[in-house]
């Protein structure tokens, strides 16, 4: 479930990102169907999904950012990372990204991403097509 999708900032961010990248709508639908709570970070670049569960008795620091790496191309990206423990830090610890074309996006893939995110990015649950190196800038 998305806890802030109906709040003004969350709703505006969601509408903006889905208008720019309609294939992300299916990801949002599957997040809304999931029993785990999630939120959208309205201040982040791209569509940043924040799991609100705990991992090992601590808040889950993992994030998934959905974005289009290059405006002229169809390719989309799901980037997985953890925020720094330090509140003032903008550091991100990258766990990799899955690149895909809109027609390649499957419910099974998205459910794998959601499960991995909720697990705290457990290495045993890593998505199959995860790439550790990529040649584009991740939006802040």
In short:
With 140 residues, the protein is an alpha+beta fold. It contains three helices and seven strands, in the order H-H-E-E-E-E-E-E-E-H.
Defining key terms:
single chain, 140 residues, alpha+beta, 3 helices, 7 strands
Overview of the molecule:
The protein has 140 residues and is α+β, with helices and mostly antiparallel strands. It has one domain. The protein contains 3 helices and 7 strands. Strands 1-2-5-6-7 form a 5-stranded antiparallel beta sheet. The radius of gyration is 14 Å and the shape is globular. It starts with 7 loop residues before the first helix and ends in a 22-residue tail after the last helix.
- Give the helix tally: 3
Low-confidence stretches: none
Helix content: 25-40%
Provide the residue-averaged pLDDT.
90
What is the string of helix and strand elements? HHEEEEEEEH
Number of separate strands: 7
CA-atom Rg in angstroms? 14 Å
The proportion of residues in beta strands is: 25-35%
- Overall geometry comes to globular
What secondary-structure arrangement, pairings included, does this model have?
Layout: H1 8-20, H2 24-33, E1 38-40, E2 47-51, E3 54-55, E4 58-59, E5 62-67, E6 76-83, E7 92-100, H3 107-118
Antiparallel strand pairs: 1-2, 2-5, 3-4, 5-6, 6-7
């Amino acid at each position: 479930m998305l806890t802030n999708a109906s709040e003004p900032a969350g709703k505006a961010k969601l509408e903006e990102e889905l208008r720019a990248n309609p294939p992300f709508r299916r990801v949002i639908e599957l997040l809304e169907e999931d029993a785990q709570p999630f939120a959208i970070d309205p201040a982040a670049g791209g569509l940043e999904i924040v799991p609100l569960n705990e991992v090992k008795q601590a808040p889950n620091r993992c994030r998934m950012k959905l974005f289009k790496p290059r405006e002229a191309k169809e390719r989309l990206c799901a980037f997985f990372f953890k925020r720094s423990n330090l509140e003032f830090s903008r550091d991100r610890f990258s766990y990799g990204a899955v690149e895909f074309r809109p027609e390649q996006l499957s419910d099974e893939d998205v459910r794998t991403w959601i499960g991995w995110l909720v697990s705290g990015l457990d290495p045993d649950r890593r998505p199959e097509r995860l790439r550790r190196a990529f040649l584009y800038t991740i939006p802040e």
